[in-house]
Amino acid sequence: MTDDLELRHRRLREAAIAVLNAAGDASDCPPEAASALAQLRHAVLGAVEDAPPEIGVADPAEHVVSRYKYQGKARFPVGLDEEAEGIRRQLAADRTVEAAGSTSDNVVLTELRGMIVGGLLRELAARLEPGAAFGPSAHGAALAAVVTDLSWELLDQTFVGRQ
Fold first, then answer.
1. pTM for this predicted structure
2. Least packed by Cβ within 10 Å: which of 13, 103, 117, 125?
3. SS3 readout for the chain
């Protein structure tokens, strides 16, 4: 491909991903629109494996959508596996609650808030796993495992515990 054609292809793909992100769940759309969005999602996701990583636009099937890495003024999507590895590294290097020195070094939650946050983390983990919410992609599995571990770490400190 020529540079101009590659640029046009990248812009078209970024626009398609933006449309898919804005459309969200297509179940509320008329059947024709839902079908068109499904075809667009298939076309975009099918091209992901063949194309080099895109700069600037996060593909929710492969990237964290809440933040980016920056190099100079250029922004790059953060891969889900990369995010999972980074979180695991940070957790491994974190101090224990006992080593913190004082209670002002720790975040304190009521048991109810801990259960709510733990429940929300479990919901996030379920949405990152292959299935209805995330689609057939397994790109979120590593991040789902990290989130699941964190949710249990929090919930095990409440009366809910593992059930």
1. 0.52
2. 103
3. CCHHHHHHHHHHHHHHHHHHHHHCCHHHCCHHHHHHHHHHHHHHHHHHCCCCCCCCCCCCCCEEEEEEEEECCEEEEEEHHHHHHHHHHHHHHCCCCHHHCCHHHCCCCCHHHHHHHHHHHHHHHHHHCCECCCECCCCCHHHHHHHHHHHHHHHCCCCCCCC
